Amino acid sequence: MGFLLDWLHFCCSSRRKIYYLHRRYKFMSRMEKQLSRFRGWLPKKPMRLDKEKIPDLEENDCYTAPFSQQRIHHFIINNKDTFFSNATRTRIVHHILQRVKYEEGKNKIGLNRLLTNCTYEAAFPLHEGSYRSKNSIKTHGAENHRHLLFECWASWGVWFKYQPLDLVRRYFGEKIGLYFAWLGWYTGMLFPAAIVGLFVFLYGMFTLDSCQVSREICQATNITMCPLCDKYCPYMRLSDSCIYAKVTHLFDNSATVFFAVFMAVWATVFLEFWKRRRAVIAYDWDLIDWEEEEEEIRPQFEAKYSKKERVNPISGKPEPYQAFADKCSRLVVSASGIFFMICVVIAAVFGIVIYRVVTVSTFAAFKWALIRNNSQVATTGTAVCINFCIIMLLNVLYERVALFLTNLEQPRTESEWENSFTLKMFLFQFVNLNSSTFYIAFFLGRFTGRPGAYLRLNKWRLEECHPSGCLIDLCLQMGIIMVLKQTWNNFMELGYPLIQNWWTRRRLRQEHGAQGKANLPQWEKDYNLQPINPYGLFEEYLEMILQFGFTTIFVAAFPLAPLLALLNNIIEIRLDAYKFITQWRRPLASRAKDIGIWYGILEGIGILSVITNAFVIAVTSDFIPRLVYAYKYGPCAGQGRAGEKCMVGYVNASLSVFLVTDFENHLNSTLNEREFSEQHVKYCRYRDYRDLPSAPEPYAYTLQFWHVLAARLAFIIVFEHLVFFIKHLISYLIPDLPKDLRDRMRREKYLIQEMMYEAELERVQKEKKERKKNGKCQHNEWP
Asked: In this protein, which residues make up the domain named Anoctamin dimerisation (predicted)?
């Protein structure tokens, strides 16, 4: 019991009421301020929570401090039974059970080992009662917080309401509360990104008819394009790709560059304002003074290195110690495993590339005219679906490998274990999910050679871009992967637990009957729910971080990504809430003052997004070639202006001429004898900047090619430097702490010091009066 009290002195806190200064700071989003202007036709504060349903959401104004037995007289302790919350008591019990020895004389420690060797089947905190009942089993008829959360948070009818984060924190702990606070903030910040992305898409739709490039492609009935594969791909008119050219314009237009810059700035603003929001939450939830150093050593680390101890330089107490040589050897093995798994991903991508190269000819010879005429789109679509299946299969392998490598490293604390496991899983899944996208964006069609001198993989030609460009392949890749990934995740998060719990209820109904099932104790009802993920919030964070990567890294090629992410996250918040309240056992409450290593990963994705979008616009998009033509080679060359009239003749200038008789000798002999529009084909065109076959150096690069290449490199440098400058400027101008919060923290510190001084002075004076009084009494009684 003494150990328990000592641990409580360091880890628990209670509220101390001092002065009624002002109401607790309540965050109001800019969105609600804008909506408040339209109160004439909108309900008053439509997104605010109903205070009648959550009457205890408002808290008294008070300051807090770490609990200490020496200063117990400074704390308000109205009821010792309720002095520590259920979440705190749960953490205390779990702390003890993790470290208790269950067999004397042997190094067998902790509840986790008993769960591993199947001595116990499960260990979990109980819910406060049924989510359908208002009464709590833990507080003798008091209001059930689980029921309140179900009505005001997990119900689909309140999808437009703010989340009751204070109640979530009280029921599930600060760590889960911070996740939902971050998810809500991320979803709210997606609104402006989704609106701007939608405007970019609509701009492409409204300017579709006036686009000179699309018009020229649709009218180019006299331009014959070279075959895209060796044997079965036919010659085709350029006008046959009219639809693809129009679809490409929806995503690749003059507003794309603006949107790429906007999203880079948006990512910075999102992260900077999240730091401010997190600071407010940390202050409201008493996490400002909570430090990670309070975290205990992992039981596995204690068991492994209990024989080697050294004095902790901070606490001055002996603790288990891992030698430097042992740590380095384990890290080297872990890094080697990470490198090997990344090579496995690259090998899988190489397999997809081979599939694309082989099947494009197969689809070109297909019996169905629809597939035969759209062989390249069919190849891309099936390759994306196969890639998605490979992604999901490799994810299962990655999880086991990451778990093995993390345990091999023997991290000292739980936070170190989580950070190490998180970093490995993110690297695996990020490379697994985005490797094919990087291939399509930056390698597809870039190293294929030219007609008559194709680069080959064994006997197969490398895949070329569609005559309208490679951006349509990138859009298709991102759209299919993003929709399938989010749909699969939502099913696995909610659909799978629903099916499992339905089957369990059905079995219990058969064993006990409907009445017997209703009379089961709470621990058995909770036991029949699904266990929470053993890695806590890892999968929830990972899903959103990968989505953030899709939303920012290749957003220049897919402006609708923020809109799809927004629609998914509106569902995701309520889906996760419903899952935590109704389908999962109650997780162990734990404390955290931020989202941990995920913030650093978000910053890394923000930096990577600037680089990738610069390359997408410069390399994958036709923005730079069009710009060079408009200012250098078009009708407006030398006039210093650009417009649709300046793009007249661009399509013809961007296509090179090839003499059909110069094809490789090993091609099918019928390829040079194909008929097209009842005439023999003598010349065909292809996307490149090369000289005519009759030039002194046939098929050599023209001067326009080098101008375009120089413009692309210059754009990448200017774009990156400009955007990084804007990002750093925004980071510098936006302080991490709001000014009013900083002032309140200083005011609180001042008042606490003043209160402590006055309390100590009052106690000393009181002791002096008592000693003086006792001294007088003894003096009077002496005779």
From this structure: 29-165
